[in-house]
Structure formats: C-alpha cells, structure tokens
Amino acid sequence: MDKKRNILISIVFVMLIVLIPVGTLLKMVKQSIPLNQYTGALVGRYQMIKFNTAITERLTGGNYMESNEVLLGKNGWLFYKVETDGTPLHDYMGLNHFSNEEMEMALNNMEEFGNKLADRGIKYAVMTIPNKEQVYSEYMPDTVPVISEVSRLDELTEYVKEKCGGVIGGKYPYIDMTDILIEKAAEYPLYYVTDTHWTEEGSFLAMQEMMNELYGKRQNIDDVQFATYPGFVGDLTKISGTMDRFTDVTYELLEESIGPDMYCGGTLFVVGDSFGDAMLHVAEHYYDNVYWVRIKDYESGLIDKYNPDVVLWECVERYLPDMVEARVDIK
What we know:
The protein is an alpha/beta fold. 42% of the residues lie in helices and 16% in strands.
C-alpha cells in the first residue's frame, strides 16, 4: 500500500514539474510575454508564494514571512527587502554609501538639467524621498540591525548643503523630504502599511514643500481633509501572496478643502520613479496638466512634447544611483 502511494505521489510530483513550465511557456506565447519575464509569468506563482508564506508564518508564530522580497515587520507592517530593485534594507542598515566623486556627479547632473530648463524659462526643483523603512523605523523587526546612522541620502543632502547651501547652482531648490516626513509620521499615515509607496497625505506634504520653494506658498496639512477607503491592496501584499491576510486603507485629498489661492495652473512634468507617479493624484488639484516619466525612460524630446511650466526631478532613496548615472538632456 505504501509503495503504491509513493508511486502515485511521485507521478503527481513529476506531472507538476512538467506541467508548470509547459503551462508557463504556453501562457507566454499566448500573451506575447518576453522570455526574460519567465519568472513573473510562472503558472501558479502567487499560489505557491501564498502557500509558502502561510507555512512559514505558522511555524514561527507569525513572526517571520518566507519571502525573497517582503519583510514582515511589527504590527503587520510590510517592508521591501529586494536586492534587484534598489537595496532598501542596506539603505536602512547604513551599508550603502556614496563616494565624493559620485556625489559630485549627481550634483552636476542636477545643475545641468536645471540650467537647460532655465534657458527655456522653465521652473525646476529636485526632491529626494526617504524609503519607508527610514520614516517608520519603529515597525522594522529587531532582527535587522542599524550599522550606521548615516545613510546615503544623508550624505548626498549634506554634500549639497556644503557645496551650494542646499540650493543647486545657487538657483534651483533641493528638497530632502526626510525630516519633514519623519516629523509628521506619528500624526499622519504617510506611507502605506502594505505598500512601498507614500499615501496621498505623504505626497501632499511633498507638493507643499515644492510649491513653497517655487511660489512661496503652502497649505498646512492640518487644514485639509482626506477621504479614506478601506480594501486597498498594496504591492507588498501582492508580491508576498498575502492579499487575504493584510488589508490597507487608501487616502484621497478632498478638493473642496484646498485653499483657493493654492492653485498654480500651467503644466507640471515630474521626472523620476514611481513616487512621482503617486504624486500626480495630488498635483492634479494644483495644475492644469500633469505628466510623469521614469528617469530611465526620459527622452530629450519630452520637454517639447509636454511644454511644462515646472519640472520636478524626484528620486526615492533606493534609486539614488540614478541621479549619478542619469544624463538628462533637452533638444
């Protein structure tokens, strides 16, 4: 009896080994998915992740989640621990650092972009954004040590202050959102519990800082209202296959609470990463048109295409090397 059962289990196992890759390849052909995306297209991928996560959580009493990309923090907070999309844990631990040459290159890139925009009469600002781990560090698990209190973002910000007083080329605002977000983090949900990004409350604060630097006006977050909607599914729950276990709330800035003198008009063009994309929902309340592109997808002709009045180059902490490597040109 045991022999027959073992044979049956072996047959089922072999079938799974064969059917999963075959099914995945058929799916990729049908949906025209390129071969370099095989892992993401794997048939049953999220079901397997979900099963693995559930097993490890039960074995550890809910203190650990087996995932290559998601770290289970305190009170159900999820954090990004991937090493192929930046290295946010290394940022938090203080392991990532810039050389002086790299910081000089980043500053030169920021200033060069600003000068080219200024020649076209376009306002310009640079914004750096801390990772979620820095802002809500109290929810990080104790198993992740902080080796150095000075992060790569701290280094870059200090370098900009030393070289040009925090104003790039003496003309263009450099805004580091770290202190502002940490100061307000206890009062407002500035980042999602189950997502890598900031909420509309976080991006609202960023928008106010930018407008204060460019127009000399801002509205206090205490003076506006946000609608809340339960059931938000964060990217970290999707990655870890825990959509049924972790829920979140999304926030929406109510237009009627925005001061009438806060409207700017014209066109805002945000160059950067997904945090800039998340800012657009707030920016739409202040500008006639808002556009966004990833820095790696930026092309010189986009300035002519969008004809912006304002360009914001933003960069979240885990993508700071982009500011060193980017070559932002204008036709």
